[in-house]
Amino acid sequence: MDFSIPTEIQTTLDDLDAFIESEILPLQHADDNMRFFDHRREWARTDFDHDGVPREEWEELLREMRRRADAAGWLRLALPEEFGGRAASNLEMAIIREHLAHRGLGLHNDLQNESSIVGNFPTVLMMRDFGTPAQIAEWMPGFLDGTRRLAFGLTEPNHGSDATYLETTAVKDGDEWIINGMKRWNTGVHHATHDIIFARTSGDDGSPVGITAFLVPLADPGFVVEHYWWTFNMPSDHGEVSLTDVRVGDDAVFGRVDHGLELAQHFVHENRIRQAASSLGAAQHCIDEAVAYANQRVTWGKKLSINQGIQFPLVELHTEAAMLRQLIRETAWRLDQQHHMEVTHQVAMCNYRANRLACDAADRAMQTCGGMGYSRHMPFEHIYRHHRRYRITEGAEEIQMRKVAQHLFGFGRK
Asked: Which long-range contacts (CB under 8 A, 24 or more apart) does 226-234 make?
C-alpha cells in the first residue's frame, strides 16, 4: 500500500502555494490589511456598534480574495465540471484543507468566516441534487456570482441536536404556505438574500418525516432578524430570527415536501471530513509553532526544548496528529469509493477527534509559549476560539460519538 500523497495532488498543493505567494500574500499585506490577521484582528473584523457582525471592509477583502481565486481556477475546485469546477475528490479536498490550515492564519484560508481560496459551496450541491429544474435555472447562477446567498435556519431556541422536534410550522393555504416560528444561529443571515427554513408540515414531534425545507426571502415583512448572538469567536453573524405569517409559494419548497431533513444530512459527511482535515492542519500548525518557540527560547541558560516537561506533551499531540492524518485520508478515500452511510461512523470519528485535537494543541502551544502564547500576537487564541465551536456545530461531539456507538454496538440497525 502506498500512503504517500498522490503526485497529482502534490502538484496541486505546490500550485496552490505558488498562487498564495503571487496573488494572496501581496493582497494581505497591502493597505494595512494585516490588521485583519495580526493582534488587531478581532477588532478590525468586528463591527461592535452594529450587533458584532463582520465589518464591510473585512468582507470586501474576502470577496476580492475569492474573486482572484475564482479567476485562477481554485475557488470552485470541488464543484462538478458543469459548474466550473474540477470535481475534486474527497481525498484531494481533505489533503488540501489540511495543507491550507497548516500554513496558519492568512487570507488564503480563514475559517472564522468559512473562507478559503478553495471553496466548499454546500448550497450548490444541495440545489443540484434537490432543486427543481426551474429552481436550478434561477438559483445556480446567483450562487456562483454571489447575488444569491443562503442562511441556514434549522436550529431553534428550544431545539438544537433534536431537530425532529421543531416548533416552527408551515401550513398550506391554497397555493401558499404560511410559516410561523423562531430560528436561532442563522449563520450568514446578515448578508443573505434567503434563508433555508425547516418547518414541520405534518407528522408528530420526534418524527424525521413531516419536516419541509423552504427558500424564504429575507425581504418578506414577516421575516425579522431580532438580534445577533455574540460569541466566543467574533465577529458573529448568527442571527435570532422570527417568522410571523410569512407566506411563500410552492416554488419555495426546497426538496420533497415532508422530507426536508434529507437536505440537512446531504452534505454533512463531505463537510465533516473537510472540517476534520482543517482542524488537523490547525493542530499541526500549533504544534510546529510551539516546537519552534521552544527551540529558540532560552531559560536558565538552556533551550526551553531540553525539558521533557515541554517535549512530552507536544510529542503526544504530534503522535495523535500522525495517527489521525491516516484515518482522515482513509475515510476520505472510502467516501470516494463507497456510499457515504457505509463510512458515517468513520467520518464521525475523524471529526470529533480532530476538532478536539485542534483545541488541545492550541491550548498546549499557549502553555509552551507562556505569556507570548497567551497574547494575541501569536495565533493560538484565535485558533482555539474558532475550532472550539466545531466541537458543538456540525453535530456536537457527543452526537458524533453516539453515531460511532450505534455502529459499534449495533443500535439502530434494521
From this structure: 227/51, 228/51, 228/52, 228/53, 228/190, 229/184, 229/185, 230/52, 231/389, 232/385, 232/388, 232/389, 233/112, 233/385, 233/386, 233/388, 233/389, 234/42, 234/45, 234/46, 234/52
Please give the backbone phi and psi of residue 150, each rounded to the nearest 5 degrees, phi first: -110, 135
Short-list 123, 114, 143, CA closest to 196:
123
Long-range contacts of 336-343 (CB under 8 A, 24+ apart): 336/89, 336/90, 336/91, 340/269, 340/270, 343/269
Q: pLDDT tens, 92-139?
A: 999 999 999 999 999 999 877 789 999 988 888 889 889 999 999 999
Full set of structural domains in the chain with CATH: 7-122 (no CATH), 150-259 (2.40.110.10), 267-409 (1.20.140.10)
pTM of the entire predicted model: 0.94
